[in-house]
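Continuing from the previous page...

OK, I double-checked the sequence for Acetyltransferase, GNAT family against my notes and this is the correct one:
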Amino acid sequence: MLQDAKDFARERGLDRILVTCNAENFGSASVIERNGGVLENVALDPATNSSLRRYWIEL
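Thanks. Re-ran it with the corrected sequence; updated structure tokens here:
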């Protein structure tokens, strides 16, 4: 699914995308990292009061 999202973004001329996951969701973090995700930071999501891992993926 992430690969499809990368292809979709690339087709629309984007050169990078921001992908987030819950900080405790190590499975999602692993998928993002295997797809080229580089961790920018861990930030608090005020809507849910939980921590999010923020990754940039260069296309």
